[in-house]
C-alpha cells in the first residue's frame, strides 16, 4: 500500500515539499483527498473543504495542491511494475494498492523481504510503501495497517506468527477491518464485538445467522483461510463514464460541445486500451441543484451500429445528441458521456453491408493517434471540436507540472 499516495507523488519531483504539510484537493479544488503525515498531525480530516484549512496549512509552511491525475496514474504504473519483479502474481487493487501472491517463494525472514521490497520501490520510484504479509488478503490488510501506523515495524509486518497475529487483531477496531462497513461496525459493537480478534473468535451460529456471504468470508479470512482469490487481469468494464463538474456555470452551447467532445475522446481512449468497442452511447446535462434558479437535468442515448471505438464517429454522434438535449436559458454545471454495451473488438457481429472499423484505415489512424499521445503527452494530437482554451474546465489553480507524461514539463537542471 503506497503511503499518502497523491502527496507522495508530488514530493518525488518537488523536494521542497518534503517534511512540510502537503494536502491534495479533489476536482475543482474542493475537498482534501490526500494528506501527508504533517497534515494528519495538524488534525485536518480527510474530506475537509480545502478553503477551510488553507490558513492553518499556510501558517505551518504547507501547501494545497490540485489533483494531478496524469502524474498519479503514471507513478502508479511504475510502482506496479516494480512489484511485478517480486512475485509471479500481482493483483492491482487500486491506484495505490496491490496484492502479491507469494505462493512457492521461500523466505526465512518475510519481514526482511518486505523491507527489501519497500526499499526497492522507494529507490526506483521515490514512493514510500508499507508491506503486510499474511496467509489471507484480509490478514494482509491488517498487517499493512499496523506496518503503516507503528513506526517500530519500519513499514513491514508479517502475521504468519500466531502470537503476533492475535495481538494485531486485538489492536484493530472492528470498523477498521477490510470489508466491514459502518452499518456492520455499529451492529457488531452493539453485540460486544469491538475488535478483529473478537470477530475472528465469534460464535459460529452468530456468524451464520447475522452475516452475509461476504461477511462470513471476512471471518474465515481473519482465521487464516484464504477465501478471496487473486484477480490478476482486471475485468473488462461494462460501461465507461467520463464526466466532470465545470469550473464555472456554462451557458454557451459551444463550450458544452467542447466539453462533450473532450469526454468522448477520453472514453474512447479507455475503450481502445481494453481492445473493445461500444454499442451504446448516452450524453447527459445538468444544472447546479445546490444553486437557486431554473433547473434542468436530462439525458439522451442511442445505439451505435456497428459498435465502434473510432473517436471521430463517437464525437459526431455525441454532438448530435447534445444538440437535441441542449435548452437555452440554463446555467449548466455538469455534462458527461457514457459508453455501454461494450464487447471485445474481435466479437463484433456485422451485417453484409457493414464494415468493422478494425478492417479499414480508421483502426490504423486511432493506433497512430494513441501512440503519439502516449509518447509525447496527452492531446499532442487532439480533435478540433475539443477546443483549445477550454475555459469550462474544472478549477485546478494549484496544479503541479505533468513531470512524467509531458516533454515540456520535464524537470530541468540548472
Protein architecture, described:
It is a single chain. A hairpin with a 2-residue loop joins strand 4 and strand 5 (97-101). With 414 residues, the protein is an alpha+beta fold. The chain has helices at 5-13, 37-41, 50-59, 69-83, 110-125, 137-149, 162-171, 182-190, 196-200, 204-210, 213-222, 253-273, 311-325, 361-376, and strands spanning 22-25, 32-35, 63-65, 89-94, 97-101, 131-133, 156-158, 240-250, 276-287, 297-308, 332-344. The chain has 3 domains: 5-67, MutS, DNA mismatch repair protein, domain I, CATH 3.40.1170.60; 72-222, Alpha-Beta Plaits; 240-386, Dna Ligase, domain 1. It contains 14 helices and 11 strands. Strands 8-11-9-10 form a 4-stranded antiparallel beta sheet, with helices on one face. A 3-stranded mixed beta sheet has the order 2-1-3.
Instruction: Output the CATH class name of the largest domain.
Output: Alpha Beta
The residue-averaged pLDDT reads 90
Computed CA radius of gyration, to the nearest angstrom: 24 Å
Trace the largest sheet across and list its strands. Answer: 8-11-9-10
Estimated structural class? alpha+beta
Mind telling me the CATH superfamily name of the largest domain?
Reverse transcriptase/Diguanylate cyclase domain
Number of helices: 14
Say what the CATH topology of the largest domain is: Alpha-Beta Plaits
Number of domains: 3
Question: Fraction of residues in helices?
Answer: 25-40%
- The proportion of strand residues reads 15-25%
Mind describing the biggest β-sheet? 4 strands, antiparallel
From the 3D coordinates, which CATH architecture of the largest domain would you assign? 2-Layer Sandwich
Number of strands: 11
Distance between termini?
35 Å
**Stretches with pLDDT under 50, minimum 5 residues:** none
SSE string: HEEHHEHEEHEHEHHHHHEHEEHEH
Shape: globular
Amino acid at each position: 500500500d503506497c503511503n499518502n499516495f497523491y502527496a507522495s507523488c508530488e514530493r518525488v519531483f518537488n523536494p521542497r515539499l518534503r517534511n512540510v504539510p502537503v494536502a491534495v484537493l479533489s476536482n475543482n479544488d474542493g475537498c482534501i483527498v490526500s494528506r501527508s503525515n504533517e497534515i494528519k498531525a495538524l488534525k485536518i480530516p480527510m474530506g475537509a473543504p480545502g478553503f477551510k484549512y488553507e490558513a492553518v496549512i499556510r501558517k505551518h509552511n504547507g501547501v494545497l495542491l490540485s489533483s494531478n491525475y496524469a502524474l498519479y496514474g503514471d507513478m502508479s504504473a511504475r510502482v506496479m511494475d516494480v512489484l511485478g519483479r517480486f512475485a509471479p502474481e500481482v493483483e492491482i487493487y487500486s491506484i495505490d494498492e496491490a496484492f502479491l501472491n507469494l505462493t512457492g517463494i521461500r523466505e526465512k525472514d518475510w519481514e526482511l523481504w518486505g523491507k527489501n521490497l519497500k526499499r526497492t520501490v522507494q529507490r526506483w520510484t521515490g514512493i514510500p510503501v508499507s508491506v503486510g504479509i499474511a496467509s489471507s488478503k484480509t490478514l494482509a490488510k491488517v498487517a499493512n495497517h499496523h506496518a503503516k501506523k507503528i513506526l517500530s515495524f519500519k513499514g513491514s509486518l508479517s502475521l504468519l506468527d500466531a502470537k503476533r497475529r492475535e495481538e494485531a487483531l486485538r489492536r484493530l477496531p472492528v470498523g477498521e477491518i477490510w470489508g466491514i462497513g459502518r452499518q456492520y461496525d455499529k451492529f457488531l459493537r452493539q453485540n460486544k464485538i469491538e475488535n478483529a480478534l473478537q470477530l475472528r473468535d465469534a460464535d459460529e451460529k452468530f456468524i451464520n445467522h447475522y452475516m452475509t456471504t461476504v461477511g462470513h468470508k471476512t471471518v474465515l479470512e481473519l482465521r487464516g483461510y484464504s477465501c478471496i482469490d487473486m484477480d490478476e487481469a482486471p475485468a473488462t468494464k461494462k460501461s465507461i463514464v467520463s464526466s466532470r463538474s465545470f469550473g464555472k456555470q456554462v451557458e454557451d452551447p459551444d463550450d458544452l460541445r467542447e466539453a462533450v467532445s473532450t469526454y468522448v475522446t477520453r472514453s474512447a481512449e479507455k475503450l481502445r486500451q481494453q481492445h473493445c468497442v461500444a454499442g451504446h452511447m448516452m450524453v447527459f446535462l445538468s444544472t447546479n441543484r445546490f444553486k437557486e434558479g431554473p433547473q434542468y437535468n436530462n439525458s439522451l442515448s442511442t445505439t451505435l451500429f456497428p459498435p465502434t471505438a473510432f473517436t471521430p464517429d463517437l464525437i459526431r454522434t455525441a454532438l448530435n445528441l447534445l444538440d437535441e438535449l441542449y435548452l437555452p436559458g440554463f446555467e449548466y454545471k455538469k455534462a458527461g458521456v457514457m459508453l455501454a454495451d461494450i464487447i471485445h473488438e474481435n466479437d463484433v457481429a456485422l451485417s453484409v453491408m457493414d464494415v468493422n472499423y478494425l478492417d479499414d484505415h480508421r483502426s490504423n489512424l486511432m493506433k497512430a493517434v494513441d501512440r503519439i499521445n502516449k509518447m509525447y503527452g496527452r492531446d499532442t494530437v487532439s480533435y478540433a471540436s475539443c477546443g483549445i482554451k477550454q475555459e469550462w474546465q474544472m478549477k485546478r489553480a494549484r496544479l503541479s507540472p505533468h513531470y512524467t507524461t509531458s516533454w515540456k514539463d520535464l524537470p530541468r537542471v540548472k
